[in-house]
Amino acid sequence: LIVVVAACGEQKKKITYPETDLAEAPLIPKPLKVVPTHSAFGLDAKTAIYTTQTDPAFEKVGVFLAQTIKDRLNLDLYVNGGTDETVERIIFINQTDTVGSDNPEAYQLYIKNDSVLLNAKTAEGAFRGIQTLRQLIPETSNDTLAERPMWLIPSGKIIDEPIFEYRGAMLDVARHFFTVDEVKKFIDLLAYYKYNAFHMHLSDDQGWRIEIKSWPKLTQVGGQTEVGGGPGGFYTQEEFKELVDYAAERYIQIIPEIDMPGHTNAASFSYPILDGTGKKLRAYTGTHVGFSTFDARKDTVYAFVDDVVREIAAISPSPFFHIGGDESHATKKNDYIHFVEKVEKIVQKHGKRMVGWNEIAQAKIDPSTVVHLWNEPHHALKAAQNGSKIILSPAKRAYLDMQYDSLSKHGLHWAAFIPVDSAYVWDPATYVEGLPRESILGFEAPLWSETISNSAELEYLAFPRAIGYAELAWTPAEQRDWESYRKRLAEQTPYLDRMNVNYYPSKLIDWK
Ligand code: TNX
């Protein structure tokens, strides 16, 4: 490879690049450190991508980059191929242990006239780095600088790594079902902004969305309903695996959630033996919460949970399994605690770390269990004192299903109206008073789907706010600034338009 770099170094024709400023590039999330050198790398048809080949994952990252460049610019770049005649410039994706950080997602970019060097310790870090590179490719090429069109990438150095190890978004596919393709499109958008976790809310009162082979009626019956009376739907295990793989190629883990012991009407309606309400069961397509519960004193219920966790764990590489546990208003408190403690053992038996909404901290949970804060900080504080890590999703600030304002077409407002600025101008790390920084696993933006049922509606609520949340979870608070952010956000329109994203055109942003 040294040879290739050297060969490329001997430029055939001297090009006079226009002055650039890497520090002004509209990158989101904003990188930790940017040092501009005011020249450019000319991405063109004679650019080749080389990667470290001792780790095949690095070559895959190179192929991913080549594919995005092909889709967008229609340039076919070699990955670990090409000859002296076909290669004049290179992008080298390099595995190295010396990126000056222990963070597995850290990367460094050195952008010069004839080479881009992307250093990362892991393929995951390299993948985050190529998102930065993608964001630096300009909309239009310069067609007069050389014999071929060149897309000028501003030169300089970027040193980057995230503040949070967990940067997630959630989609509720239970209230309304979203197809495999709709979910993939959302994952693509999340990957571009360096998310690394996608939490799927797979069951609720209104629907059960994942095939469980040992309990087939869950999908045959419970999968056929959704809010408003639509047809519902579910993922076969093969389809779920397809999503897991698709996300994994983007270094995003999928965290499956089966919500219990409340939010379980669809399961109990499919298998009445699970029910703990004693009331007459019927399919539910409304939007109330808190009326359903499993029978926490029945062995069959735990045999059921064991089967469900076992089957999902087997197709879910994420170390986490989310058991929900929220709003179990129809479960007696003692039963609830008993349930959470028993289910934690089941989750652990199948090799996973339990995650649950903040109510689970009422039980005696293991320090390895993660508490997902949404409404009651004291639960999270108590769990943190006992050693648990916390995922932060405070509804007033982080819920993607909250309306922007009273005129918003979709969404709810029980927690707050969340305009684009109030979604951005706060600090997750200090939001919960008294919660130590070491206890924070990360941040997640949940999107509940009572009021949305397709990609366009999903995107109206998620974008642009999910873009700002990506920055809250990646960039240190001292480096975040609303005025800088709103300018960079305005520059996302070419990407969002190219991706056909139905974002909400907030008046707070001077969209390009
Ligand atoms: C509360 S947040 C819920 C969900 C609803 C959401 C709507 C949480 C753990 N439970 O069941 O969908 O509000 O915003």
How would you describe the overall organization of this protein?
The protein has 512 residues and is of the alpha/beta class. The protein is 32% helix and 17% strand. It is built from 17 helices and 16 strands. It starts with a helix and ends in a 14-residue tail after the last helix. The chain binds ligand TNX.
In short:
Belongs to the glycosyl hydrolase 20 family. Keywords: Glycosidase, Hydrolase. With 512 residues, the chain is α/β, with parallel strands linked by helices.
Write the layout of secondary structure elements.
Blueprint: H1 2-9, E1 33-43, E2 47-51, H2 56-73, E3 89-95, E4 107-111, E5 115-120, H3 123-136, E6 151-160, E7 166-172, H4 180-192, E8 197-201, E9 203-204, E10 207-208, H5 217-220, H6 237-249, E11 253-257, H7 265-270, H8 299-314, E12 320-322, H9 333-349, E13 353-357, E14 370-373, H10 377-385, E15 390-392, H11 395-398, H12 420-424, H13 428-431, E16 440-447, H14 455-462, H15 465-474, H16 482-490, H17 493-498
Parallel strand pairs: 2-3, 3-5, 7-8, 7-16, 8-11, 12-13, 13-14, 14-15, 15-16
Antiparallel strand pairs: 1-6, 4-5, 4-6, 9-10
Helix pairs in contact: 2-3, 4-6, 8-9
The protein binds ligand TNX.
The gyration radius over C-alpha positions equals 24 Å
Q: What about the largest sheet?
A: 8 strands, parallel
> Count of DSSP E strands?
16
Structural domain count: 2
Strand order of the largest sheet: 11-8-7-16-15-14-13-12
CATH arch. level architecture of the largest domain: Alpha-Beta Barrel
Strand portion, in percent? 15-25%
Looking at CATH, the homologous superfamily of the largest domain is Glycosidases
Organism: Flagellimonas lutaonensis
Protein name: beta-N-acetylhexosaminidase
GO molecular function, one term: beta-N-acetylhexosaminidase activity
Catalytic activity: Hydrolysis of terminal non-reducing N-acetyl-D-hexosamine residues in N-acetyl-beta-D-hexosaminides
